[in-house]
Amino acid sequence: MTPVIGARVAVPFGRQRLTAICVAQNPTDAHRTLKPIHAVLDAENAFGDELYDLASWLAEYYHHPLGEVLGTILPVAARREAELIVQYPETWRRTEKCSNLSRAPKQQALLDYFATEGGVLQAAQLRAAGFARTTIRAIAGKGLIAPTEQAPPHEQLAAELPVLNPEQCEVLKALLERLDGFAPSLLDGITGSGKTEIYLRLIERLRAQGQQVLVLVPEIALTPQTVARFQDRFGVAEVLHSNLSDTQRLQTWLKCKRGDIGILIGTRSAILTPFANLGLIVVDEEHDGSFKQTDGLRYSARDVAVKRAQNLNIPILLGSATPCLESLLNAQSGRYRHLRLTKRAGGAELPSFHLLDIRGHTLTDGLSVPLQRIISRHLNAGGQVLVFINRRGYAPSYLCPHCGWRATCPQCDMPMTLHKTPAALICHHCARRENPPSSCTACGQQAPIAVGIGTQRAAEGLLALFPDTPLYRIDRDTTRSARRMEEQLRAIRQGKPAVLVGTQMLAKGHHFPNVTLVAVLNADGGFCSADFRAPERTAQLIIQVAGRAGRAKRPGQVWIQTYQPENPLLVSLIEEGYESFATCELTSRRRSGLPPYRPMAMLRAESRDSALPIAFLSEIRTALLDEFEVLGPAPAPIQRIADRYRFQLLMLADNRRTLHHGLHRLQEKIASDKPLPASLRWSLDVDPYDTF
Ligand code: ADP
Ligand code: ZN
Ligand code: ZN
After folding, report:
1. Could you tell me the pTM of the whole model?
2. In the structure, which protein residues have their CB atom closer than 6 angstroms to any atom of ligand 1?
């Protein structure tokens, strides 16, 4: 039997038998060395034609092997030879049949239970209600009930919906007018303006038409709070998150493919799910960096979502308070509809912004005296205070005051971060862990000291200043389990005066009604970084974290400590707002010929021997100079990770066609050149997010 394209097949591979995907049906002469397959595992395309076509597009666009693309898409559990079938929980339905059960009171009780609880019930529910398996089997034997597939759960709308404000009405009306056909829209609405409410109304309409909806959210936003909002509204919404087992993940995949799941909420990889009848894609916080995969198939889920919506000819809604420059440019040029929400829903005010010039100030654990007073004032007034610092750990450096020795990771050449409780020096790049030496490793004269501020240290300082106020620290170290994170968030939402210290994990998506002050300990680093996207990212982070302030009745304040109170980027951001800042940034990108005006790709190479990647990249550069502008080879921002030296080339083309053409030539060159040294690894990143 010939497999269809996209079907799984069992193939011989050396002495093993592996699962593979059929990608071509008529082997040509070039394939003569191929061995026959052992077995065809699927009668149909396992991906569905639409997702398979998307895979082909991904392979071309990202210049990645089709096999690896398909391998990324296919759930791990589908690599076994088992049939791909949806497993429903054991479920029974009442038949039409009647019978006299007066001599079997237990069986009669079970039938009565079906009559009162509805005609279709799961075995688990019956047993929980006290019915024995033998009783279930007995009435099944009499034909009174029959096994059935589980009925897809019934969606029901929450009874009370907020009354949309005039802006929301206008936006919703515009969206509802264009539901059939490809229609990309950017919902550009300030924090707390009621974007989510718009998503919910739109989804409601799509569900009423029987269509499926995919909602993509950033990794950090996938908290029970977000999911609960959808589940409260619709009764059901399936979630694709990283804690699912392989089997659960496959089951969700298969149910979406059959159309049994109406609403799927998920992070980046959810865009690679098959659907029977997808009618809408929503990308929430579309600017978020976690939509870009940073290894293997380096795709942007946001960009893929737009492409997929186009293929399917359906609407797509990108929402953010701080849209990325790519999307803003698309909105300005008319490719996307630009929909705006400029006021907070429910009447809350936007917070006021203040710069705090800390030149010449002494900081205690990162806090200037004026900031300490402001914090104290807000706590005394019964508010909560959020202190933002984008670095976890106790201190970013540990150094000797006598000789200047600094603790660095021997594998990465990067400073190691000091952590306390338990005390450890940790490399944030390769996770290497060491005990902090009590006297200097180099001179032995003095004990090294902690320099700089991380969340642990800021928390320690704040606890010393406000010992009677509860303090919650939220960063990757304190929230390893989702349950612990949720516990902390719940305590915060009770609203009593408290200090919240955290990294960007605190900045996004949360609704803390009682936060009246947001303090940013240091905004300068982000505006000075070498990465061309750093100002954009820093501005997004500041606006997002500021958006946690004053979300309810009490007005909020944002205080930003800075050594550069005249920095034009910072001033334009807080005085004129994000859109004005973004417009300036776009102008400067256009002048420098950077994305989104010119497409970019990055070639990275790494090896234990630093000469190899430089030689490799230099040769490529020479070959490509007539195709496009090539920058490098330059050391990667972290030049050495886990004992490997990393270098990169940045390539900029005048348009997509030129870029793709050049990248094809690049790959041909690599393939045809003499074999590369075994220890040299390279990777290609189309539309890279982090370049430095
Ligand atoms: P965003 O997604 O833009 O940050 P949300 O949809 O989370 O905004 O809305 C912020 C808050 O305002 C939420 O608590 C939400 O329930 C509430 N809200 C949204 N729309 C309305 C409305 N029309 N009237 C009253 N409250 C609203
Ligand atoms: Zn020393
Ligand atoms: Zn390291």
Report:
1. 0.89
2. 162-165, 168, 189, 191-197, 345-346, 511
